[in-house]
Amino acid sequence: MSGMPLVAWCPAKVNLSLRVVGRREDGYHELETRFQAIDLWDRIEARADERLTLACEDPAVPCGPENLVLRAASAMRDLAPRRALGAALRLTKRIPVQGGLGGGSSDAAGALLLCARLWGLEPDAEVVQGLARELGADVPFFLFGGTADGTGRGDRIRTAEYLGDLPILLGIPPFGLSTREVFAAFAPRLTPRGGNVSVRASSGAKSRGDNDFSFMVNDLESVAFSIRPELGAFRDALLEAGALGALLCGSGSSVFGLFAEGTDLAPMAARLGERFARFRIVATRAVARGAYLADPAEGDAG
Ligand code: C5P
């Protein structure tokens, strides 16, 4: 191993809306969701090596073959005519695990880009998207980033008009929620496809302010808030603090509030931090990018 490593930056996401419109034969749920990338990043570094290995300083992150970064690297390697390619990958986690922020999926998208570059492969964008889709329902979004709509399992992506760098306040509780379990508990209650009608009490008026953010609905909140009522209390506190909209992130466990341009989040972060002492409060914003490769000398992502 020698020389400068290659670096991928991998952003977190929130779902500005998430409607569950059906159940599929493959065990997944049919979704209509709007993703938004946010300014909170994992970093992956890669150097050419004889073997394919992953290291991560966070002991909570398993580095075995089940890790999505290694699965993405293997999938990319399978495209190569000569399969004896290796890489020493090093993952630096900042996006919390099981927070509904898509960290593992974003890392997988970053690893696809990183390994393609490292090994000099130039697969078509559709091929990369196909690999992403096989790795997980949220992975394709991170190849695009910004603001985008997902249908199917959430893996059929159409880019949307960028929301702008709006401020976002995240509440990250000290526990995670399993995506699989939240979806399983939701099963009996489905939103009619394409329906923006509020079909359940929890889908109702949760937005405020001059702009119309009433599209911000997450069908999985009813399940997550019944498992962990403090998440609903945190969502309500964000709305009381003036959020344009506030929702559970994906299947949880994090909760976010979207604020008007120029809002100073610091006083709210301090107040929420006092009231919800167990939560980590992160002031961030929307970003227009997805996972991307950077010059390692460039410093932080953004
Ligand atoms: O694709 P991913 O591995 O991230 O999904 C984790 C689990 O979440 C799936 O195994 C499934 O149980 C559930 N899920 C779902 N419908 C989706 C996405 C995820 O039921 N559209």
Count of individual helical segments: 8
Helix content: 25-40%
CATH class of the largest domain: Alpha Beta
CATH topology of the largest domain: Ribosomal Protein S5, domain 2
Coarse morphology: globular
Question: Mind telling me the C-alpha Rg?
Answer: 19 Å
Mean pLDDT: 91
* Ligands, deduplicated: cytidine-5'-monophosphate
Class from helix and strand fractions:
alpha+beta
Please provide a written account of the structure:
The chain has 302 residues and is of the alpha+beta class. It has 2 domains: 6-160 and 288-294, Ribosomal Protein S5, domain 2; 167-285, GHMP kinase, C-terminal domain (Alpha-Beta Plaits). 26% of the residues lie in helices and 27% in strands. The relative contact order is 0.20. The model is unreliable at 196-210 (pLDDT under 50). Bound molecules: cytidine-5'-monophosphate (C5P). Cytidine-5'-monophosphate is lined by residues 28-29, 31, 136-138, 153-154, 179-180, 183.
Short description:
The protein has 302 residues and is α+β, with helices and mostly antiparallel strands.
List strands and helices in order, with pairings.
Layout: E1 6-23, E2 29-49, E3 52-56, H1 68-77, E4 86-92, H2 103-118, H3 125-135, H4 139-144, E5 147-151, E6 156-159, E7 167-172, H5 179-186, H6 221-227, H7 229-240, E8 245-248, E9 255-258, H8 266-275, E10 280-285, E11 292-294
Parallel strand pairs: 3-4
Antiparallel strand pairs: 1-2, 1-11, 2-4, 2-5, 5-6, 7-9, 7-10, 8-9
Helix pairs in contact: 1-2, 1-3, 2-3, 6-7
The structure holds cytidine-5'-monophosphate.
Cytidine-5'-monophosphate binds at residues 28-29, 31, 136-138, 153-154, 179-180, 183.
